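Example 3.2
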Amino acid sequence: MNVLVFDCEAYGIEYLLWRSDDNMVLARGTVTGVGTRSAILKHRLGAQPTHQLVREMSDCRRAVKWVISTLVDPKIGALKAHNEIGAVGHRVAHGASKYTKPALISDDVLDDIADFADYAPRHNPYNMEGIKAARALLPDVPHAAVFDTSYYSTLKPKSYLYGLPYKYYSQYGIRKYGFHGPSHRYASERACFLAGIDFAQAKIISMHLGRGSSVTATRAGKCVETSMGFSPLEGLVMETRCGDIDPEVVIYLMAKEELSLRALSDVLHRRSGVLGLSGLGDFGDVVEKAREGKKRALDALDVFVHSIRKYLGAYILDLGVPDIIVFTAFMAEGHPVVRKMVCEGLEFLGIKLDDKVNESVVDAEGEISAPDSAVKIYTMPHNEEMIIAQSVHRHLAETETSRLS
């Protein structure tokens, strides 16, 4: 079966076409600049060089159609016809406590995704746009949602309850949910495979350091802690999100700046984090300016890394010294300095980076720990779409088996 996966976000679309018969990625790519006259589709067929296409792209539906058309393009497509797509998987950020496994998309499931948009207003609505577009264009195949939050269904109350009146949890579902589940799962499983360690037995700390950033602790195949919370705003200082702050700051800012809820949300989600601290427009610029000794860039990078190390330390107290630490997503994949700063001074815990190897592994998969490190350290290109494709295929097979039994 060929499974097509869509991850539709505010900034664009990521997609992957996977064949279950031989676990082969047939094609993958991204669409950025949706809503502009110069949207860019970067499409890679197997191991071939990336093809880049530019086109005016007014909305998500047209972008999804562009992807599907590219997949059957006679020159660069992976398929001969649309009917070779056997199923479609969709990443959905928030499934609350209701969805702990993939769900075949129905009108009721769509209604739930819309309801959960109150928890993830900058994610679920865009996920829904992609689902509706794909269902309209591919109406004859099953579509399934895979929820970021489902990986964290194993959290215990001590990890997911906030110190608020209990009625806010029981009435409104206010608790820690966690995000980036498929990404943490893929990076952790792949690192275990490379290390020759059974995922079902391993202690792993995974770090997804991208536009949104999170740290997750996994023991024996189950998540036990994660840094993101009720929304993707909690936890680490991120690219443009503030992460953990004193709640009183919110009250103070609203009074001082006379901010509306929408304006405050914009400050916390889009104008804060590493870029807000540095005054720069790109994380790569921050790394470069920090290398040049620019104070604001140095401070921003230090704050970012310090927030990661705080969670790393906390999770080591919970797990014990992990078997594996794995870095994924673009801030970690493309910037060895981030990995070096995170691991610096941790030799007393058996965490020892090989500096030379670390510098050489950029946007690639590889072990970066020193030969005498007690903890295996890896960097891993993020690939949550692979986990989504496999999860959808497995869920459809289980559903069919259940139907026949």
